[in-house]
Structure formats: C-alpha cells, structure tokens
Amino acid sequence: MAKFVMLTTLTDEGRKTIKQNPERIKEVNKEVEAMGAKVLAQYALLGPYDFVNIIEAPSNEAVSKVAIALGSRGTLQTMTMAAMEVEQFISTLKK
C-alpha cells in the first residue's frame, strides 16, 4: 500500500468542534478507515498546520477520495503528498 502525508488546517468551525468534542479526532480516523485508508500516525502541530497524518491507502485515487470527503465538511483543509520510504527511494535511484 502507498503512504501519504496529509497536513490539515482546521477552519473556525473545525476548531469549535474540536474544542467541544476533542474525541472527534479519533472518530474521524475511524471514518478514514471506512473509506479504505488507514491513519498510521497522527500528530498535533504548532505552526501553520494543526495536524500531520501519515496515511496508508491503496492508491492516489483512494487518498484523494478521503481528502475531498474530509474537506467537503467545511471543518478542515488538507494538503496531501505521496511519500516513499528512504530505502525504497535509494533503491529506485540505483536502478
């Protein structure tokens, strides 16, 4: 399965939701799994982004579906990037 880095920024509505129900973060992770992807790691951030998620998904299309579904709620914005393990990257360069 492919890995992706998803940076998220909460909107005003998203911040209100998280403040009222912090466990909502874990509920969203379960929804991501129901869409065919899996959150491997998640960190809250200080700075221009609120969260970084390492996601595993079967394809670009699958993670795109997740990003659009989450973003369409109006509670967050995402930036998603494909990721490759360094060993795989090095192996690719040697070919």
Structural account:
The chain is of the alpha+beta class and 95 residues long. The chain has a single domain (2-94), classed as Alpha-Beta Plaits. The protein is 43% helix and 33% strand. It has helices at 12-20, 24-34, 60-71, 86-94, and strands spanning 2-10, 38-44, 51-57, 76-83. Strand 2 (38-44) and strand 3 (51-57) form a beta hairpin. The longest helix is centred in the last third of the chain and has 12 residues, at 60-71. The two termini are 21 Å apart.
List the helices and strands and how they pair.
Layout: E1 2-10, H1 12-20, H2 24-34, E2 38-44, E3 51-57, H3 60-71, E4 76-83, H4 86-94
Antiparallel strand pairs: 1-3, 1-4, 2-3
Q: Total number of helical segments? A: 4
The proportion of residues in beta strands is: 25-35%
- DSSP strand count: 4
Overall geometry comes to elongated
CATH homologous superfamily caption: ACT domain
The low-pLDDT segments are none
The largest sheet, given as strand count, sense and whether it forms a barrel, is: 4 strands, antiparallel
The tally of domains stands at 1
Helix content: 40-55%
Mean pLDDT: 96
Structure classification: alpha+beta
Strand order of the largest sheet: 2-3-1-4
CATH class: Alpha Beta
